[in-house]
Amino acid sequence: MALNTPLTAQDVMRDAPVIPVIVLHDVAHAVPMARALLAGGIRMLEVTLRTPQALACMEAIAKAVPEAVVGAGTLRSAADVRAAVQAGARFGVSPGYTPKVGQACRDAGLPLLPGVATGSEVMMALEDGFDALKFFPAMQAGGTGMLKAWQGPFADVKFCPTGGVSAANAPELLALANVACVGGSWLVPNDALASGDWGRIETLARAASQLPRG
Ligand code: 3PG
Predict the structure, then answer these.
(1) Which atom, in ligand 1's list, is nearest to the CA of 164?
(2) For position 93, which CATH number holds?
(3) CA 57 to CA 113: how far, in whole Å?
(4) Which of 50, 114, 130, 175 is the 20 to 30 Å CA partner of 71?
(5) Is residue 214 part of a domain?
(6) Taking Cα atoms as reference points, which of 116, 142, 143, 111 lies closest to residue 46?
(7) Is 21 close to ligand 1, i.e. is its CB under 6 Å away?
(8) Mean per-residue pLDDT for 8-28?
(9) Ligand 1 center–CA 20 separation, angstroms
(10) pLDDT by residue (tens digit) across 175-197?
């Protein structure tokens, strides 16, 4: 997939089996971490808006690592969406869904993976034109059983289960027909960031990028 054209949320979900959920506290970590994930075969990078440094980290990655696609996670408001786009985010992920966040993403041309955990939330996102959804918090909200149950009424919807996903349980999720990819923080452990262990992040990314999909 060419990265210099506008992306859809489906493109973001199809690119690799895992979208890393990244929490950065230090801008100096952003670029070497992004390069390590890229070297391991992961180029869609969700940097969560959970730290004061998140926007600066996105900006640094967008500028220095153009072969990666930086996205913004934890979008909770229209203002978050605008700040993320300003910082160079090319896709967005939200822990839940509101029409205001959906509208802000449409206005900004930002592909969004909205978070859903119930059938009503799936229907609300579909009504607003979003059909590539983050299932969050996946393992806490029903995991594989829930995704199998959704294959009936929501057969046309693709999910990215996130929350409690690990290298151990990712394969059973990825085997499901309605799972396009999974999300998880295990690719970028805090201690690897703190010690600058980019090799470990690359190894985790390589293993994740090679997980089979159903
Ligand atoms: C998220 O923010 O999407 C999740 O908290 C990531 O969950 P994990 O840490 O269990 O992978």
Answers:
(1) 10
(2) 3.20.20.70
(3) 20
(4) 175
(5) no
(6) 111
(7) yes
(8) 98
(9) 9
(10) 999 999 999 999 999 999 999 99
